């Protein structure tokens, strides 16, 4: 299949590589940053604009930083929309606003094309190993048509609902991850200030109802004081903004998400925009004037 | 060994049974509720008071509802303290205040005895199957001496620090469990109100960084609207009180624990004291005037 892949950064580059190795022809847009050599060396076509890439392809995949970039690549002059014709499919694998996603989809569908939102979790390593979780919002028919592409890039591939539901699921994921990190931080900080060894507390809690991937990985980070990302607070904060925005527009109250966002704010105010998100523990330590373990 | 086991209710009864089957002689106090037949049938000795049981035993195990009951059994007239003599060990397996625990321990140690706090997690099923997690606060020497008893009742047995550290660890466990439940509730409620299928969201999130025992078990409860306990909100609320009390006395701020406690309060104000703790989702639903899925 001819695939326009727009956004070959940390995540998109290895994802596009999996599609290429599966025999698909990639159409890339190199007007911003130089294109990865290994993709060009395997017969990827370099296009002058998103429009040109969309014209040449059956399917357009986006993997971009945030909502404004997706809007711009789709609808600016020489954008994807100008290159689409009926029957093509746009797949947005970026993590962006569920609400804007539905607006983008309406405009794309008006051109006779399908729109699929399919954000991922699993990070750089998941992208490299082709083990991403992919959360899909799409019609049943569009999902079945593009599922083989997802199977080259990920493992746990779930259609969670209609258009927008993939982004909503990703937002739910980011809420649960942030609040579970915050939960582990409150538990370990209290235990530590009360004189228990936080490493032993973590060990005692693994295997019981408090056990989670977060207690295992981010709990260890807090104890080892390893706040190198990982996943940066500034990015997770962007995701919690999406959560709180969606919550407001839907009439839902998310009290602990709001507090977690404020703790991320406190980290950013203290130079921590690029700390790993497990450093939300440091915001609690500021409030407590004490630490889980000194830096 | 001769063991005084005080508190043979839902948890204590099967725990005492494991010790009995391992060949220990139990000394029970039957002044409040009738003693379990299966324990008496296997040569458990019925004593007239905690004092009498402590006199007859090498080691006293308590498995009681809360701090006041432990204080009363230990120090009231005809209590355990009156029956102790130097060299005996008191093991409190109840979940009670870490601060009061240290006060109780001082008084017991003044009698020449050891004090061990060893609360458990794993619930009724863990107690029956002998698979409890046991979180121990004790001197190294006292821990090693009583460890064989713990091995009859549990699997994941960790000494997390000195006296009081076991209770502190249990408090940390209860914080992390409550806040992870609350995290799952915020994520699933938002997803559901945004039109995604919460069951599919849960499925998509299992295996990734959002995955936890809580997402698996309590997430399913929220989706199935199964709020039969399980673990009752009134009990978890008691544990969060211990957390917030300890936090205040230690100079730690636990913002999300405080909010979770308020959500438990809201449940109790709406007749939910005996709902399962996963029903914290119902408090969020009240705030949102909507539900993850209608009852």
What attributes characterize this protein structure?
three-stranded mixed β-sheet; alpha/beta; six-stranded parallel β-sheet; elongated; 295 residues; homodimer; 14% strand
Name the overall outline of chain A.
elongated
Strand content of chain A: 5-15%
Helix and strand pattern of chain A: EHEHEHEHHEHEEHEHEHHHHHH
Count of DSSP E strands of chain A?
Answer: 9
Subunit arrangement of the protein: homodimer
How many alpha or pi helices of chain A? 14
Strand order of the largest sheet of chain A: 3-2-1-4-5-6
Mean pLDDT of chain A: 95
Give the biggest sheet of chain A: 6 strands, parallel
Q: What structural category characterises the helix and strand content of chain A? A: alpha/beta
Q: Biggest interface in this structure?
A: A-B, 74 and 74 residues
Radius of gyration of chain A: 21 Å
Unreliable residue stretches of chain A = none
Q: What helical percentage do the residues of chain A reach?
A: 40-55%
Give the end-to-end Cα distance of chain A, rounded to a whole number of Å.
52 Å
């Amino acid at each position: 299949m001819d695939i326009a892949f727009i956004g070959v950064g940390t995540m998109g580059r290895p994802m596009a590589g999996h599609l290429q190795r599966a025999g698909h022809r990639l159409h890339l847009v190199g007007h911003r940053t130089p294109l990865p050599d290994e993709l060009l060396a395997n017969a990827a076509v370099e296009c002058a604009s998103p429009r040109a890439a969309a014209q040449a392809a059956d399917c357009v995949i986006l993997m971009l930083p945030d909502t404004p970039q997706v809007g711009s690549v789709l609808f600016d002059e020489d954008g994807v929309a100008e290159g689409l014709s009926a029957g093509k499919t746009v797949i947005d694998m970026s993590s962006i606003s569920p609400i804007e996603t539905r607006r983008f989809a309406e405009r794309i569908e008006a051109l006779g094309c399908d729109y699929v939102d399919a954000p991922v979790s699993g990070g750089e390593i998941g992208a490299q190993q082709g083990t991403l979780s992919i959360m899909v919002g799409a019609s049943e028919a569009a999902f079945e048509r593009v599922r083989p592409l997802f199977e080259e890039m990920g493992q746990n591939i779930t259609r969670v609902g209609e258009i927008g539901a993939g982004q909503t699921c990703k937002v739910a994921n980011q809420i649960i991850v942030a609040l579970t990190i915050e939960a582990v931080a409150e538990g370990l900080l209290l235990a530590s200030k009360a004189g228990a060894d936080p490493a032993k507390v973590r060990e005692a809690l693994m295997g019981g109802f408090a056990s989670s991937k977060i207690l295992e990985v981010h709990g260890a980070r807090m104890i080892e004081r390893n706040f190198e990302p990982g996943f940066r607070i500034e990015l997770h904060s962007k995701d919690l903004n999406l959560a709180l925005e969606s919550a407001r527009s839907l009439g839902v109250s998310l009290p602990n998400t709001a507090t977690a966002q404020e703790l991320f704010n406190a980290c950013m105010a203290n130079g921590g925009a690029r700390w790993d998100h497990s450093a939300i523990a440091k915001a609690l330590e500021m409030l407590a004037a004490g630490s889980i373990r000194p830096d």
